[in-house]
Amino acid sequence: MSDVGNENWETANQRALASALAAVRGHLSHRIAQARDDAALPPAVQRMVDESLAAPGGESGAPPVSPSPPPAFETLCERFHLSPFERDTLLLCAGMELDSSFALLCAAANGDANRPYPTFSLALAALPQAHWSALSLEGPLRRWRLIEFVTSGGLVSAPLTTRPLRIDERALQYLTGIEQMDERLAAVIEPAPRPHRLVESHQELARRIASEWMRAVERLPLPVILLQGRDATEAAAIAAMACASVELNLRTLAAHNAPNNATERQTMIRLWERESVLGTSALLLDCSEEEDEPSRGAAINDFIERVRGALIVFGRDRRELKHRRSVALEIPRPTAKERQSVWQSAMGDFVPRLNGHLAMVASQFNLSVPAIHAAAAEIQVDDDPPLDRLWDACRRQARPRLESLAQRIEARATWDDLVLPDVQKQTLRDLLVQVRQRAKVYEEWGFGAKSARGYGVTALFAGASGTGKTMAAEALANELRLDLYRIDLSSVVSKYVGETEKNLRRVFDAAETGGAILLFDEADALFGKRSEVKDSHDRYANLEVSYLLQRMESYRGLAILTTNLKHALDAAFQRRLNFIVEFPFPDAAQRAEIWRRIFPQAVPTEGLDFERLAQLNVAGGNIRNIAIHAASLAAESKVTVRMKFLYLGAIVEYTKLEKILTELEAVKWEC
Question: Measuring CA to CA, which of 21, 454, 538, 631 is 20 to 30 A from 232?
C-alpha cells in the first residue's frame, strides 16, 4: 500500500470512509431539518443535526481525503459502476454498522422512533440524484448482493421501499479495508496452493492463457480456458502463473461443491462474480473427480456457461460448451529431459551418488513436478543404495490414481519359479530386454521420432488356466521393479455407449505416471473378434477394440493380455502385439519340476515322490492348490507333509474340476 503523508493506506482509507459517511450523515440531517419542527426532536438528535449541518463543507461533512491507491469505497463504486445515489445508499447502510449516530438520525428522518434503520424510501427522500432504478434486481446494489432487505420480524409483507436495508458483510469488510472472502464461499472456494517452479513447456502454456485473456479484454466476457490433463496439481500451478502475469489472484473450486439445485447454483455464481471483482480473482474449477459422475455433467456445464470473469476449467476429458466462448488447451506431460532437470534440482548434491541413473528414473516415471519433489524428499542422506530407495519412492508416488481403478498384485514370483519350455522362457527374456531398453532405443537412438505408435510394449499370454500366465507377469514385474496391476474387466466394460473407452482411458492415463505393468486377465471377454457390422451394437463394440489398440500402442509401459482362448482374438489385433507367449499345458517332466519347487523351504516334508506326483495331469495352478491343502492338513495333524495328504488334496482339487483320478493317477500312492 502507498503512504499518504505519514499515514499508511489503511489509516487513509478509514479517514476517507469517515469523510464519506459524514457527507451522508449531512444529507440525513438536512432532510430532518426540512421535515420537522426543531422543538420536536430529542435533544441528542437535535445536537447531531446541528453538528452535521455546521461541519466544514455544510452537508458534505469533513473535507475529502484522497489516499493512493484510492479508498476502498471509490474502488468498489468504480468496479460495480455505482451511481452517486447508489454509492450514498450503500454508505447509508454502512453507517448503520459503523456509526451509532445513524440509527437515531434514521429514526428522526423516518419520523418514527420505532424505525431506526435505513430504507429505500428514506434514501430516495434524503439522498441527492435519487433514481428508482436503484431498486431493480438488475441494478448493481441488488445484483451484486451489496445490500439486502431485512425480512425478519414480520416485515416480509411490508412494502419494498419501507423494509429495512442492511449492507452485506463482505461489502462492509471491503469498505473498511479487510480482505476476507464471503463465508458462504470460503467453505468451498480456496486460495490456490503456492505454485511450484514450472517446466518450460508448462510456462509456455501459462503464457498462452494470459495472452488469450489479454486479447479478449476489449470484447468481454473473457473466454473460458478449458485445460485438459491428468494432474490437478500441475493445472493449478499453470493457472497460478497465468493469473500472476495478469495480476489476478487464483482461487480453486472442486466441481463437486457446485450445487445441483439451480437456485443455489445461481446464488453461488453471483457471489463468486462479486468476489472475483472485489478480490481481483480468477477461478480454477477442478472437474477431474466430477467426471466419474456423468449425472453431474449438466449442472457443471450450466455453472461454466453462466459464471463470468476469468475462469479456467480443468478436467481429464474434453468438454464442449454451447453458449460460451472457450479456448481448449492440453497440458503436455513434461518431457524426459524436463523431468531430468527437475530431478537434478530436487536431488541437489545427492545426484553424484546415483551413478548416472537419474536419466533412467526420469524416463521410467512420468511424475509431475510436485511428485518429483515429494519422492526426492523421501531419500535420506545415509540411504544406501540410494537408487533403490529413490526407485521405490517413485513407485509410491505413481500409485494413488491407479489404486482406485485396478488391483495391485504384490509380485512375489521370481524368474526361478517359472517352469516353462526354453522357447517361452527366451521370449519372456526378450520381452524383458525390450521394456528395459525402450528409453534408450526410442529416445536416445531416435526410433520414437520415426514412428507415432508410441513406446509401449504389448504382450499376449495365451494358455489354459493355471499354466503360469499371472506368475510370469509377476516375475517380469519383479525383474523390472515395477508395480503390477490386474484390470477388473467388470469395472471397465459398460453397456453404455462410449463408457468403456472412457474407463480404459482412465486406466491407461493413471498408469502412465509410473509405467506400471497392466495385466488384462481373461482379455478375450473384452477383446474378442471384431464382428461384422450388423447393427449399432456391433459398430460400437468394434470402436472399443480399435480404441484399445490405439491406447496400447501409445502407452509408455507394458500391457499384458491373458487369454484361455487365443483363437477368439481378432487376427488384426494379434498382429499389432509385440510378443505372443504360448503357455503350454505342462508335461510330466515339467510337472515334476513344479512339484519340486512348490513347497517353501520352511515347509516340513517327508517321503514325497515327485515323479509319482507328476502323474497328476493338472496345471501349475492346480498343483499349488493341492500343495496348500496338503500343508493345511499336515499342520492340523501336527506332522510333516506326506504323500497321503497330497492324495487327499488331489481328490479335493479333482472334485472341484469335475474330474476323477484315472487308474494311472490313483495307483502307487504311499498313504
Answer: 454
Nearest to 458 by CA among 623, 380, 536, 574: 574
Model-level pTM? 0.76
Class of domain 415-583: alpha beta
Q: Tell me how far apart the alpha carbons of residues 293 and 252 are, in angstroms, rounded to a whole number.
A: 20
Q: What is the pLDDT of residues 569-584, one digit of tens each?
A: 767 777 778 899 999 9
3-state secondary structure 59-96: HHCCCCCCCCCCCHHHHHHHHHCCCHHHHHHHHHHHHH
Residue with cell 541413473: 357
CATH architecture of 588-666: Orthogonal Bundle (1.10)
Mind listing the pLDDT tens digit for each residue in 170-219? Answer: 999 999 999 889 999 998 999 888 777 889 999 999 999 999 998 887 66
Cβ 562 vs Cβ 581: under 8 Å: no
Asked whether 375 and 354 are in contact (CB, 8 A), the reply is: no
CB atoms within 10 A of CB 261: 10
Q: Which of 325, 300, 135 is nearest to 220 (CA)?
A: 325
In angstroms, the Cα distances linking 561 to 69, 485, 504 are: 66, 12, 14
Q: What is the total residue count of the chain?
A: 671
Q: Which three cell numbers stand for residue 51?
A: 453538528
From CA 182, how far away is CA 173, in angstroms rounded?
Answer: 9
Domain 185-330 matching CATH 3.40.50: the answer reads yes
Q: In terms of pLDDT, which residue wins out, 568 or 347?
A: 347
At residue 456, the 3 state secondary structure works out as coil
Domain ranges of the chain: 9-180, 185-330, 336-398, 415-583, 588-666
Look at residues 612, 615, 610 and name the one whose alpha carbon lies nearest to residue 595.
610
**And the C-alpha cell for 273?**
462474480
Q: How far is CA 255 from the centre of its chain?
A: 9
Give the integer Cα–Cα distance in Å for 231 and 513.
10
Domain 185-330 shares a fold with domain 415-583: yes
Number of H helices, E strands in the chain: 29, 14
